[in-house]
């Protein structure tokens, strides 16, 4: 007998995917018309970059792990492409559910499109306008191949329309990552993260740094560290170091570690605790720009562009760039009391996953029901 459920194959690969898939899986699994399979590509494989997040966020063990690991962009993408094709052929899900913009997302969307399996892309339409960012290429391709483009902010819809994506494919639903943040805030607030690290609420800045544009160039990286060390002399700068950045410190800086408070990558809950109590955050991440806006914590983004303009227009984000002087001046401003207050964008309310499930159920259930009736 044909399945009488809407079969969703959800795919994750790298750290920023995990907090986005968690609330979606929970929502779909709570609805009796859906059946989910979770695939982990294995793009991120260190416990601190992967398993710890599954634990913190209560994500079920993946049904399949493709274990692709690290490699060049071509090698990594190609391995996911081949691995996911076999699974898609075997399972023929009603929909491939993708979140974000990592290499695993790109590869899975290519495989599904060639097999005529419809794609739902969550966090669609974001554009930095900078095609030297690998994520920008990944977003462009995935959006163009998707049947459902779920957007987090109005700019996402505007970008998709400009690129000729049909109106009926675009659904403004809000931000699933903020669903996760709201669901975990109370639990994170119970943690003794600050005490363990010898920090006081509001008495430190939190730093993350991993973009190729910042960490793959020796002069940029050492200039940034110089500015950050200066800030650290006034206010401790706490820095959980991404594996890519550790490698850059080793390879480009000859192992000369910056004089900051260095930490291993943190789990979701500890990091949320650290973010929510920081005086300000310095980052080149995409997601952290949104999380700080949702938390009302000032954020200095160490990039020249952002694909998340609402965090600047409405939120607490300031685009600073990667030049040492700009970073120094922006931090100086905050230390002198110039804080940017913002508001939380529309639909960042903890209910984005439910809106997405509503759309998929409305669009897919009639066919599945008809098939089950034969
Ligand atoms: C990836 C995403 C990026 C996201 C980031 C968050 C792409 C193109 N980039 O970048 O959008 O912001 O994840 O972390 O998909 N490594 C480990 N252990 C791991 C994973 C990686 O040591 O578990 C090291 C390896 O040396 C690897 C390097 O980190 O070569 C980079 O990993 P990769 O997955 O290629 O990209 P990220 O920089 O993590």
What descriptive keywords fit this protein?
single chain; 374 residues; alpha/beta; 7-stranded parallel β-sheet; 6-stranded parallel β-sheet; 16 helices; binds uridine-diphosphate-N-acetylglucosamine
Would you mind describing this structure in some detail?
The chain has 374 residues and is an alpha/beta fold. The chain has a seven-stranded parallel β-sheet, with helices on both faces. The protein has a six-stranded parallel β-sheet with strand order 10-9-8-11-12-13, sandwiched between helices. The model has no long low-confidence stretch (mean pLDDT 97). The structure holds uridine-diphosphate-N-acetylglucosamine. The site of uridine-diphosphate-N-acetylglucosamine has 18 residues, from helix 1, helix 5 and helix 11.
Instruction: Tell me what portion of residues adopts beta-strand conformation.
Output: 5-15%
What would you report as the Rg, rounded to the nearest angstrom? 21 Å
Number of helices: 16
Mean pLDDT: 97
C-alpha geometry: globular
Helix content: 40-55%
Enumerate the distinct ligands.
uridine-diphosphate-N-acetylglucosamine
The strands making up the biggest β-sheet line up spatially as 3-2-1-4-5-6-7
Give the quaternary arrangement of the chains.
single chain
- N to C succession of SSEs: EHEHEHEHEHEHEHHEHHEHEHEHEHEHH
SS content category: alpha/beta
Q: How many angstroms does the end-to-end distance come to?
A: 9 Å
Largest sheet properties: 7 strands, parallel
Low-confidence stretches: none
Q: Count of DSSP E strands?
A: 13
